[in-house]
Amino acid sequence: MSRPADRIHARGRFSGKPGLHRIRALCAALGNPQKKLKFVHIAGTNGKGSTAAMLAGIFRAAGYRTGLFTSPFLVTFHERICVDGMMIDDASLARLTDRVEEAERTLTLPADEHIGEFEFVTAMAFLYFVEQNCDIVILETGLGGSFDATNVIDPPEAAVITSISLDHMAVLGSTTGEIARSKAGILKKGSAAICAAGQPADAMEVIHAACPMVQIPEPALDDVCDLNGTSFTWQRKRWHTPMIGLHQVQNACTALQTIFVLRERGWNLPDAAIQHGLERAVMPGRMEIVCQSPRVIVDGGHNEGGANAIAHTIRTLHFRGNLHLVLGMVADKNVAACTETLETLSDSIFVTQPENERAMAAGELAQMLNHQSAVRGIYPASEDAFRAAVQQAAPEDTILVCGSLYLVGEAEKYFASDRKG
What we know:
Layout: H1 4-9, H2 21-29, E1 39-43, H3 48-61, E2 66-69, E3 81-83, E4 86-87, H4 90-104, H5 117-131, E5 136-140, E6 158-161, H6 169-172, H7 176-183, E7 192-195, H8 201-210, E8 221-226, E9 229-234, E10 237-241, H9 247-264, H10 271-280, E11 288-292, E12 295-299, H11 304-317, E13 323-327, H12 335-342, E14 348-352, H13 362-368, E15 375-379, H14 382-392, E16 398-402, H15 405-420
Parallel strand pairs: 1-5, 1-6, 2-5, 6-7, 12-16, 13-14, 13-16, 14-15
Antiparallel strand pairs: 2-3, 3-4, 8-9, 9-10, 11-12
């Protein structure tokens, strides 16, 4: 029999008409495990994963048994479902895959519809978090909000909207206001509502209409970023996160505002736990250093907002040596807008493609670059691009791998193996 993860992936990304009817039916067949859990629900275009990691770190530091549901994964499927920082184990994954498949066979769905991958994994995660006696689950949406499978839950303890920008426009809409309308679908009566500061005006108008009482963090002051992380002052206290990038200040303030609101609602979240949890929270694949000599940084930003955050951070860090770019993207993103920003970071570009059916061919991506003279090679296999960049880089240089989370996952594997070797 095939591996559980392979059986899940075979279901495909889309499963029929947008709606919650499939996940509701599946959860009902499983005894509605989501109704036995408490959640912090997070939607947004950028910053969901980092904000979720910060919140999970703080709850863990406060002594709560904490579930964390994220997507996608970088190296192993198990990353998507974690409890207290530990990924779901093989035995549980296999057992729960069988259980959800068994429940699925009892369903009667509309013609030409089936349980898709994200719906399946969401239901499986609910079961696991119940089994693990989680006190709280940090639940990240997959796509949008209103019809995202995670939105099957009852009103959560808090609903959080992170930074909104243009992405998945074929599904969510062509403006940030339209995209915000989908994200705001997680805002429910009875929940605390928190929204990251600095949103586009049309997005903020939609969010305020959906929830007039939404809370927005006050601005941070004196933010500083280096290779050890990011520090800032917020509500007259100095805070630090090991996550690199001034954009992480927005995520951290959003997480802190959420924690302070939940503390008012009765959650025991002492100052020391908040400080400790924030200082220990990490998010793989986001401005993460995976090798030191030469320094290799990976970042999975794959839309215009993510590309702008990468560029701003790289310019803030002021590297001593040269910067070499390893670039690969999937074709259904706004590739032109991203490459226009990313290619300005370096005069040395190694163009490649992730191992994914949606990947843009390396040769096609190279043709889209304005600075053709900067291209040092076109590599259909990403490991060849990594190897070539390392060979060209001097010890004091920096290599930046970016453009796709799939590519970052391949870099994580490659450089982990390289370190072991």
